[in-house]
Amino acid sequence: MAAGTPSWEAITVAIALVAAMAAYALFAGADFGGGIWDLLAGSSARGQRARDAIDASVTPVWEGNQVWIVLGLVLLWTGFPSAFAAISITLFVPLAASALGIVLRGVGFAFRHEAVRPASKRLTGALFASSSLLAPFFLGTAVGAVTTGGIPVPSPGLSTAAWTTPTALVTGALFVAACAFIGAVYLVGDASRRGHDDLVPYFGRRATITGAAAGILAAVNLARLRGSAPYVFGRLTGVALPLVVISVLAGGAAVTLILLRRQWLLRVSGALSVAAVLAAWGLAQYPYLFPTNLSVAAAAAPSASLLAEIVVIGMAAVLVVPSFAFLYWLQQHGRLEHDSASVQLRHAARVQDRPAEPAAGARPPRLLSAVIVVIAVISAVRERRGRHRAPG
Amino acid sequence: MTGHVLAVSLIPARSQMGATLGFHIIFACFGIAMPAVVLVAHWRGLRRRDAVSLLLARRWSKVMAVLFAVGAVSGTVLSYELGLLWPKLMGIYGPAFGIPFSAEAIWFFVEAIFTAIYLYGWRRLPAWLHWWTGVPLVISGILGAFSVVAANSWMNQPSGFTLDHGRITHVDPWAVIFNKATPYEVPHMILAAYMVTGFTIAGVYAVGFLRGRRDRYHRLGFTYPFATAAVCAPIQVVFGDFVARAVEAQQPLKFAAMELVARTHAGVTEWIGGIYWQGKVYFGIGIPDFDSLLVGYSPHQKVIGWDSAPPSLRAPLPDLIHLSFDLMVGLGMLLLVLSAWQAWFALFRRRLLMTRWFLLPAAVAGLAAIVAMEAGWIVTEVGRQPWVVYGYLLTKDAVTPSAGVPVTLAVVLCLYAVLTAVVIGVPWMMGRRWRREDPARDGQDLASGPPPEMAETPELR
Lengths: 392, 461
Known about the structure:
By secondary structure, chain A is mostly helical. Chain A is built from 15 helices and 2 strands.
């Protein structure tokens, strides 16, 4: 295995890693976007309808969506362990901050539906919303640090400079904008499906604005990469250029569809614009994990470990993808509802439910018969012994 | 310089890992075992058109979802922490150690997806289809536990890899997953999860009994989880004996700490309780030769003591390990007695035992099961020290050079305090709301209004 030419197993796992990141961006990213729109929905009364719509769209799916990052982590640490160790050491701060964002998000969700007092509702709402900014921003800075060669190998050390370069910070902002964009695009679709005609233009405006912002940030980022990551820039404007073009066209198509009030292929084009940019990034980095410090081939684990990961990817394709399809199908067809036990059920339970008073006289028959048998045996024995004794 | 930084990070890193794992393990238990308890009640409810069982299943599913949500985030944090705190563990051993974790990602997905479908499907899914959407939760709970505990077993009994100049060059994934500790660690943990879940839920209804709520709702709410846990209790006690013997064979130094065996000799005294201080055990009840008897069925069995290893390679804090082990065994025995007591009544007298003498311990049985599990975890993990990969990598060599760990430790402790408040507070508030919904349970207006039609219940369609 010569350096620079990775084995097919290593390439497969690397592609799966980029795919897991894309899935995380498209699904969990949209949930973060929903959180950002929740944050910006204004006062309690004014934003109520938007918040309810976001809640209904995000709540049933966010937990499953969140697992994509776990899949990404396990692929990275098993497939490319030295890269994972280097990232963990150098990017300790942004990774810890993004983990904090994920936890706060979880707390917000677990607590949200149970908080009844306005004060605690506001608190959990704020927790949820702030975490929706934290996680994508810091993950973006981490990706920016990797792209610009900020991870020193083979001797990594904690570094603030790596993830605070202008390119990394712009990447962080780009991630936030992309999440807000994709979230708004999906919410347009959901609002139209539910027949919330006022919310369609509401989220449509937001999708247009953040789509434009994401486009501008991406252009700025590309311009910056020319200086900060010449290798990646060269490939983005070379071999990966078609993917960049697809992303731009898909983003433009999504915005046009929103302006035309058409739902057809809206989500697909929105998703494609995000996925294509991640694919372009992955292709532009090839054959490096950290351009140009660490190659895929040099970082790859032994082939048996990579094969085990390919089996895991296969299991994901067989088990996880259909499960997600089922979940999204149910959600899109209005089969999933957040509510309490029905009145009928509570009523039926109440009628069936009579307090049990253990009746005093009703001894269980088994015990009773046991006692009778014991008494019978004792009396029989006594009688026999008495009879024996009597003649003597 | 590096040595100094390592010393700075080791204690906070171990504290943070211990705090997050010690917290996560409780919620993982509910993720593993609670779906089974809920599905049993749900099945009875559908099969016998029993509204009370159905209502219990429905309400438990909400609690289950909250506990799963918290378990999911703390689990995600743990996967981050493996890198953030122990980069050298992952950097060197990732190709082997990472494999069982990778499988866990799949089961985590399945559990997250079907938890959502099951939780939100009560009203709009056909009744039996809805029940079946809960089945993947039971399966993925057990397989997920298998994957994670197999990874932990591998840390205790590493196998299936070739190490060459500090880099893994060859891996046998099957030998990694099915290492020598897997056959006993995995079932021991799954049984513990079922006991923790069952006794904890049952405890809630035992408190209800003590407060005078003796309706069928509370009786069934007690019976399903208690029966689940009570079935596991005797199996766990018998199995635990097998586990201890396996540890004695595979990790003699850990076993020496568990049983306070300072020097290798025959006719070893079994200490119940007790603190080791400078060659002697104080405050303990000693049973002469019994430890040898337990290990080798003979009083002349030789047991390896910790004097067989240099001090730097011995398990630290043998008193903590020993007392944790005794606590776990003692609580396990008490839970077995409690289970047997109720089982005797249920089997031979055909009714639920509801005396105060039973209910008071039953109310805290869940807490006891959690303490026993945590104690067992301390034995496993502290007993593995000073190694992180037993015999291969010392914990102090795996820790991050980053100096930021005390900060993250402080954040983690605050956050987990909040999470603890959430997981206790949210179900508690749910319980209060349910009691408000059902005034009849406190003896007020029973069955006012029109007679119910079970067929109209959305949950039964």
